[in-house]
Amino acid sequence: MGLNHSLVALIFALALAGCASLPTPNVVAGPPEPPLAPADLDGLAYGRPGPVLPPVIPVAAPMLPPVPADVMPGPAPGGMEPYTLDSGDRLRVVVFGQDGLSNSYIVDVGGKIALPLIGAVPARALTTGQLARVIADRLRNGGFVREPHVAIEVEIYRPFFILGEVIAPGQYPYVPNMTVETAVAIAGGYTPRAYRYDAEISRSASGVTARQKVPPIAPVRPGDTVNISERWF
Predict the structure, then answer these.
(1) pLDDT confidence band for 5 (50 / 70 / 90)
(2) Strands 225-228 and 199-205, how do they pair?
(3) How far apart are CA 76 and CA 79, in angstroms?
(4) 3-state secondary structure of 4
(5) Which residue range is the domain that position 178 belongs to?
(6) What is the rounded CA–CA span in Å between residue 115 and residue 131?
(7) Do residues 168 and 222 share a domain?
(8) What distance in Å separates the CA atoms of residue 217 and residue 228, rounded to the nearest whole number?
(9) What average pLDDT does range 102-108 have in this prediction?
(10) 154 vs 158: CA distance, rounded Å
(11) What average pLDDT does the segment 126-147 reach?
(12) Which one in 30, 70, 162, 226 has a CA-CA gap of 20 to 30 Å to 38?
């Protein structure tokens, strides 16, 4: 029995000595693993590196080119464009210091006003300021007044016209701050067949007539023609 115990102890000691003498494996540091893609769930679950997604670069929306000035839409009827004169307007012309020239003048069918000394002066398509400069230039260049100062205002605007589905269509004197609704009221109101949600305004400027659909609150200007259409149901 003593021999057996000694043999077992010897074998155990030799085993411990062999384990202690085994070489320690060298650990070589490799390149770092690529980061997992945030959306790679399989890689997160199984420890596999997922594909590295490229960074998202925001792309700015393309800017539209500016609209050329020559194709921009013109002002709607009743806009803030300067008022231009035409047949039927009655003007008060004042030439300071010249009582014989200061008077009221009506723009005739030819678009002119007739003044003493200088005769007929074209007024159609001009503003009151432009016409005042034309009259002053003629008085100066003709030798009638050395330094003329001319002021012009509209006493009575030319009439407007209303046609279509109103009680009394025709020509009416213009009222300041008029709208389509007030024009219809002046003409006696709508007929039972009238379409009341819009109207067509025709306006002439520089020999060109433009037509446009407008709501009932749209302004009406002197010389406009308002047309109220018939409803179909």
Answers:
(1) low
(2) antiparallel
(3) 6
(4) helix
(5) 160-228
(6) 12
(7) yes
(8) 14
(9) 95
(10) 10
(11) 94
(12) 30
